[in-house]
């Protein structure tokens, strides 16, 4: 949409004129503020409305700006001297910038034809010093990265060690529980299948107790219809020894 140009002339309607004044006044004060901030300028704006109401803006202050204005109006050369000083500063900065650009070109190896032997030696020394600083900074960063990697590796080792110990504890607990259950199972099986006889004087441990088994007697393998034959323990042992001995040669 094309914006229509408005002809600048006095607004006859009082209400419209007051509204336009309020809008334009705010815009003017905002422009003054932006100019003072962006350009570091000392700005002072004084506005009186048609009804005599005062509006103003100043940076840094109204007194400072007005005092400088009065001084500059009484001595016009003071303003020119200020402008001359600004011009000299701008020229100095321009020369310094050109020197920096030339030095940068020389460092990268360009425009060396205009340099003398002394200038080349001085440039070489500067380049060596710069390389020393660059290498020192590079080594410092490498050492910092190595330390950082060491810290990360130590952290990972700590985590792995903790996980291994936890897994070992779980395995040990599982094995212990399994052994306990196995021992309980074996104990219950032995108790149910055997009747261990208490060791008493005159009896052989492991042999079932009966009323016919007497102290000092052992049942032999020869059995009759009347039941097993019991022989004294000592006699049984002697018979066994005689059987183990080889026959004497005639």
Give an overview in words.
- With 250 residues, the chain is mainly alpha-helical.
- Among the domains are: 63 residues, SRF-like (3-Layer(aba) Sandwich); 37 residues; 67 residues.
- Helix content is 64%, strand content 10%.
- It has 5 helices and 4 strands; from the N terminus they run αββαααββα.
- The strands form 2 sheets. Strands 1-2 form a two-stranded antiparallel ribbon.
- β3 and β4 form a beta hairpin.
Helix-strand layout with pairing:
Blueprint: H1 14-39, E1 43-48, E2 54-59, H2 62-74, H3 76-107, H4 117-193, E3 217-224, E4 227-232, H5 233-244
Antiparallel strand pairs: 1-2, 3-4
Helix pairs in contact: 2-3
Q: What characteristics describe this protein?
A:
single chain, about 250 residues, mainly alpha, SRF-like, two-stranded antiparallel sheet, two-stranded antiparallel ribbon, 4 strands, transcription, MADS-box/MEF2_TF, DNA-binding transcription factor activity
Major beta sheet summary? 2 strands, antiparallel
What string, H for helix and E for strand, traces the elements in order? HEEHHHEEH
Can you count the helices? Answer: 5
Radius of gyration: 58 Å
Low-pLDDT runs of 5+ residues are: 195-224, 230-243
Mean pLDDT over the full residue set: 74
* Share of residues in helices: 55-70%
Shape designation: flat
Class by alpha and beta content: mainly alpha
- End-to-end gap: 149 Å
Strand content: 5-15%
E-strand count: 4
* Strand order, sheet with most strands: 1-2
Domain K-box: 83-169
GO molecular function: DNA-binding transcription factor activity; protein dimerization activity; RNA polymerase II transcription regulatory region sequence-specific DNA binding
Domain MADS-box: 1-61
InterPro entries: MADS-box/MEF2_TF (IPR050142), MEF2-like_N (IPR033896), TF_Kbox (IPR002487), TF_MADSbox (IPR002100), TF_MADSbox_sf (IPR036879)
């Amino acid at each position: 949409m094309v914006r229509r140009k408005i002809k600048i002339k006095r607004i006859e309607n009082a209400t419209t004129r007051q509204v336009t004044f309020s809008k334009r006044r705010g815009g003017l004060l905002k422009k003054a503020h932006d100019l003072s901030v962006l350009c570091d300028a000392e700005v002072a704006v004084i506005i009186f409305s048609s009804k005599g109401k005062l509006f103003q803006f100043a940076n840094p202050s109204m007194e400072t700006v007005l005092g400088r204005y009065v001084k500059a109006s009484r001595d016009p050369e003071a303003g020119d001297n200020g402008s001359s000083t600004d011009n000299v500063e701008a020229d100095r900065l321009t020369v310094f910038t050109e020197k920096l650009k030339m030095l940068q070109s020389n460092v990268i190896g360009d425009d060396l034809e205009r340099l003398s032997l002394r200038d080349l030696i001085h440039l070489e020394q500067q380049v060596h010093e710069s390389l020393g600083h660059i290498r020192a900074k590079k080594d410092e960063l490498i050492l910092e990265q190595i330390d950082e990697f060491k810290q990360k590796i130590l952290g990972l080792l700590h985590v792995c060690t903790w996980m291994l110990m936890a897994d070992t504890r779980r395995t040990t607990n599982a094995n212990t529980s399994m052994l306990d259950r196995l021992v309980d199972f074996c104990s219950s099986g032995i108790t149910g299948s055997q009747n261990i006889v208490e060791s008493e004087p005159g009896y052989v441990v492991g042999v079932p107790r009966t009323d016919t088994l007497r102290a000092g007697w052992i049942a032999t393998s020869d059995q009759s219809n009347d039941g097993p034959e019991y022989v004294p323990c000592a006699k049984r042992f002697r018979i066994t020894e005689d059987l183990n001995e080889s026959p004497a040669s005639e």
